[in-house]
Amino acid sequence: MIEAFVLVVVKPGNEEKVYNALAKEEKVKEIYRVYGEYDIIIRVEVENIHELDRFHDEVLRKISNIEMTETLIASSYRG
Prior knowledge:
Layout: E1 2-10, H1 15-23, E2 28-33, E3 40-46, H2 49-58, E4 66-73
Antiparallel strand pairs: 1-3, 1-4, 2-3
C-alpha cells in the first residue's frame, strides 16, 4: 500500500469545484483546504506506484481547474 499526499494549486475561485470532484474519488481518503502556496492537500491510498500513475493521469489531470500538483510519497520512521 502506498500513501501519498498531493499538494494542489487551483485556479482562483474554483476551490469548491475541485474539492467536490476529488471527494468523489475512492482513493482520496482526506481533503484539506489550506492557506499558502497550495490551496488543497489530499491524502491518497493506492496499492502500487502504477495505481498512483493512473490516479494522476485519469483523475488529477482531467480536473480542468487544477493548475499544478506536487506529490509526496509517505514513508514511516519505523526502524
